[in-house]
Specification:
About 5% of the residues have low confidence. This protein has about 280 residues and is an all-alpha fold. The chain is built from 14 helices and no strands. Helix 1 packs antiparallel against helix 14, helix 3 runs antiparallel to helix 5 and helix 10 runs parallel beside helix 12.
Length: about 280
């Protein structure tokens, strides 16, 4: 059993239930109508969660490439080098995101934060020039669409090829994909935000590919993968029902937490992937 899948699945379940309880209580219980609004403010619990997942991802990126590079006698010189270069590039991006998060959440004056608007996606231009869009489109293309297309087309990489070894090590597992899909689904659909015209089609495309992969080849789907998909379905229903509560708050802080959990899940899966690749090389 993959330890990283178990840990990330439990973290995904806990985070999703936490969000669902906050959203449902804000939407349907008048006495708790401000719960999600208060939790989603800058510097509150979601920014703390995001910082924790970011730090875990950074720590993983410092450890896993060293383990892979130590086995260069098995993988050759090229694959560990490519993985190390990519991990260093991702490490730089995550450090920038961490400093951006800390500046946004913990270093700004509270009075200034309360005066600032929480939405920058009322117009399409303002949205596509924001950090929200950069995080979304990067994760959607690289960690959702491309892996699902690869799995749906049932492509097989040549294990003897140097580049193929690197890609197999970096391949995100289904748990990671589902977590990112939950982040994409976390959006107020019944709103006047222009970003919904990007989120909704992207999520529909991702869902269709995921369903196709499930029926096409279910070898990669175990108990935790099926459980995560079921949790995702319940989460989507909750997000649709609670669009108004999400719209009243800075929901991106909660959404960003799922993105960071997905990043950590992806980086943590490299250690398991390199074991699979090494076994295939010797088989």
């Amino acid at each position: 059993m993959k330890l990283n899948t178990i840990i990330c699945s439990y973290a995904f379940f806990a985070l999703l239930v936490f969000n669902m309880l906050a959203l449902l209580s804000s939407e349907f219980l008048p006495i708790f109508s401000q719960v999600f609004l208060l939790l989603a403010r800058d510097g509150r619990i979601y920014d703390i969660f995001s910082s924790i997942f970011l730090c875990l991802a950074i720590l993983t990126l410092l450890i896993v490439p060293v383990r892979i590079y130590s086995k260069r006698a098995i993988f050759g010189k090229t694959a560990p080098f490519i993985v190390t270069i990519i991990s260093m590039a991702i490490l730089c991006v995550l450090c920038i995101l961490l400093f951006w998060l800390w500046d946004k959440a913990f270093l700004k004056d509270i009075g200034i934060m309360e005066l600032e608007t929480t939405y920058d996606d009322f117009t399409l231009y303002s949205y596509i020039t924001s950090v929200k869009f950069v995080v979304f489109i990067t994760c959607w293309i690289l960690l959702v669409i491309m892996p699902l297309l690869y799995k749906s087309l049932v492509l097989k990489l040549n294990i003897k090829n140097r580049l193929s070894k690197s890609l197999l090590i970096l391949e995100p597992n289904m748990t990671t994909i589902v977590i990112f899909m939950c982040a994409i689904a976390f959006h107020p659909y019944f709103s006047n935000l222009q970003s919904k015209y990007i989120y909704i089609p992207c999520f529909i495309i991702s869902s269709c590919l995921l369903i196709y992969v499930i029926f096409k080849d279910n070898v990669e789907f175990g108990f935790y993968e099926y459980a995560n998909i079921i949790f995702l379905a319940f989460g989507i229903l909750c997000f649709v029902l609670c669009s108004e509560s999400m719209l009243r708050s800075d929901f991106f802080n909660a959404q960003f937490t799922f993105y960071m959990l997905g990043i950590y899940s992806w980086c943590a899966s490299w250690a398991y992937n390199q074991e699979i690749v090494s076994n295939e090389i010797f088989s």
